[in-house]
């Protein structure tokens, strides 16, 4: 039988496990079973945890059955959607992993412009379904990202300046609570829970179904990349990009990326393997108007202008090649109210010698539609910042961990004078209770009150954790 342990380290009796398996609609995997290692694998290779049992429910009733079993036997639980979270919150040691991989259906109503998706779907699957009708919602920048983790963390993506964050298009959610009850949260039912789900991470329950309001988009948009070698002009280009984006209409999106150029066929040979500033360009208006909209950047004469009308699905895959699972990852992030010249100079100085050719540093413009939603409309607390800094440290050799982590920390340390306390929690490793509190800011007390109401024992603690008042103990992460 499985090696499932309770929180005190005692084995769960075999008879209880057998009874649980008989009552489950779905599959269970124990250490050594075919598929177990695949189920416990996540995006970040630094995470190597071994749950005592993996359960893969087929429906909400299966999730309820698993939650009630875990409560009865005081078992630690983690939830896996896409498994893209860098801290690896999807997987626990010795406890119960509820893997939503068998719950991935996406149903689109093109007339109502809505989509209902099960919690295990990925953004690649969701976008393929909605783009079949020329519709979309702000989704993850990597197609393998799960809709669940991204949405509950508030949901940043290429469309946010035009349509707001993912949670701004969330209509309702069906949630299994820590009690095992299934409830619907929306503007009409469990309104307090609905508010907290929109940015509160996985703190309040397991969302088995998301319902989104969709927006007309595509199938063709204009996008790609403008490549500028770091040959002395990067300061001029980055300042120009800042000024360009802070005055840009909502239809203009993208990011500035400090990268090492990969050896791809479409890249000029002289640029391959060199440090570069890449401007990721996305235009959500008519593709024929895009070059005029991006003229301030195009006139800077990039070494390569890899931009053209393309399917929105291709835009969603722009970063996939550089973000393959199985590498070692350490991320840090901040949001910045503004980026004066001194801040850009500090960033360029700190990233002049990348520690790894796989590492990417993103400056993402915020604002637009996302910033026009009132701060108190959802749980997130950082809408008014103009820029997001995301340092994605990535490498392959475990013996290099200390050096790589130190480099990532040094970059955000150099930017600390211009960073605000609140930031996008989906971009962070585990940085402690204070970081979570700071990111919710004035909303934090309300988040704790919701935790007290819906999860007073901190059953759902494998996340960027909001501790209830009567907290019984949590789990340390990375």
Q: Notable features of this structure?
A:
478 residues; alpha+beta; Uridine Diphospho-n-acetylenolpyruvylglucosamine Reductase, domain 2; Uridine Diphospho-n-acetylenolpyruvylglucosamine Reductase, domain 3; Vanillyl-alcohol Oxidase, Chain A, domain 3; 7-stranded antiparallel beta sheet; 23% strand
Biggest sheet architecture? 7 strands, antiparallel
Q: Going across the biggest sheet, name each strand in turn.
A: 15-12-14-13-17-18-16
CATH architecture classification of the largest domain: 3-Layer(aba) Sandwich
Strand proportion, as a percent range, falls in: 15-25%
End-to-end gap:
29 Å
User: What fold name goes in the CATH topology slot of the largest domain?
Assistant: Vanillyl-alcohol Oxidase, Chain A, domain 3
Given helix and strand content, the structural type is: alpha+beta
Sequence stretches where pLDDT stays below 50 over 5 or more residues = 472-478
**Number of helical stretches of at least 4 residues:** 16
The overall pLDDT, averaged over residues, is 95
Topology at a glance:
Layout lengths: L13 H9 L3 E4 L6 H5 L12 E5 L2 H13 L4 E4 L15 E4 L6 E4 L4 E5 L4 H9 L3 E2 L10 H6 L7 H4 L6 E7 L5 E5 L4 H7 L8 E8 L1 E2 L3 E10 L4 H13 L5 E9 L14 E9 L6 H4 L1 H4 L5 E8 H4 L12 E9 L4 H10 L9 E6 L3 H4 L14 E9 L5 H15 L17 H8 L3 H11 L24
Parallel strand pairs: 2-4, 3-4
Antiparallel strand pairs: 1-2, 5-6, 6-10, 7-11, 8-9, 8-10, 12-14, 12-15, 13-14, 13-17, 16-18, 17-18
Helix pairs in contact: 8-12, 12-14
